[in-house]
Amino acid sequence: MYQDRVKTHPKNREREPAQLECVTCQILNLTPFHNCSHETLERSFPSRRLLFFEKDEVLFRERESAEGVYCLYSGKVKVSKRGKDQQEYITRLASPGYILGLSLFTGKLYANSAAALEKTAACFIHKDDFIPFIKSNPDVLIEVMKHICYEIEVVEQNISGIVQKSCRERLAETLLMLRGTYGTDSNDFLKVVLSIRDLANFVRISETIMERLICNLVRERIIRVEDERIQLLNIPKLYEIAGATGR
Fold first, then answer.
1. Which among 161, 183, 212 is the end of a domain?
2. Which residue from 77, 67, 71, 68 is spatially nearest to 33, judged by alpha carbons?
């Protein structure tokens, strides 16, 4: 019964179980489980599944039944909520090692939505395995609490920025945050691709205002845009606009 429930989960692009051995996981040290042995994890999560998502595909939706958590293995994911006006607001971006869906601790429904920004893989762990494991492993519980505290800190910083900074300052700050989180290639293009809509939803402004701000930065030769990829041409100027210090 339990096995059937996992296999019929709507995210159905699964890798064969033989390829799901925790001993081969390359990002285990980035997760709250980094102090656990491979044997413990495989015994505790017997029905885990590695699921694959294409760009823009949804891992789970806000107010959907919370069936478990997703440990991000590769790719990038946006986490968002909808306001009373049904406008999407991106609250944070997730990288490998990040655990998504922790709101199952507080209720039966997911408190937010998660969608892939690029090809993504995530290990799905059912709540019937995850919650008992957390309860019996206080060290992992502490790591999960740190994870949740970090999420709260990010949201608080975003709220503070909305209140205290202009749209232009918030955009510059966001571009620098993306650079710090994901890095740039040899030509200074950000290694994460966000559409104008996603950028607007992250900075919490309209698409029209975002387009105008982007055009201004391009005209000032601070950034360059090529097929939604953003190239940072003048990083010191971005720090100046954001009201921050750095390199």
1. 161
2. 71
d(CA 182, CA 215): 23
- Domain around 201: 166-242
Number of domains the chain contains: 2
Question: Looking at the domain assignment, is residue 110 inside a domain?
Answer: yes
Q: What is the pLDDT along the chain (247 residues), one digit of tens a residue?
A: 333 333 334 444 554 433 467 888 899 999 999 999 989 999 999 989 999 999 999 999 999 999 999 999 999 999 999 887 788 889 889 999 999 999 888 888 999 999 999 999 999 999 999 999 999 999 999 999 998 888 888 777 777 766 678 999 999 999 999 999 899 999 999 999 999 999 999 998 999 999 999 999 999 999 999 988 999 999 999 999 998 655 5
Q: What pTM, to 2 d.p., does this model score?
A: 0.83
- At 228, which CATH number? 1.10.10.10
Helix axes 127-136, 138-164, angle to 10 degrees: 110
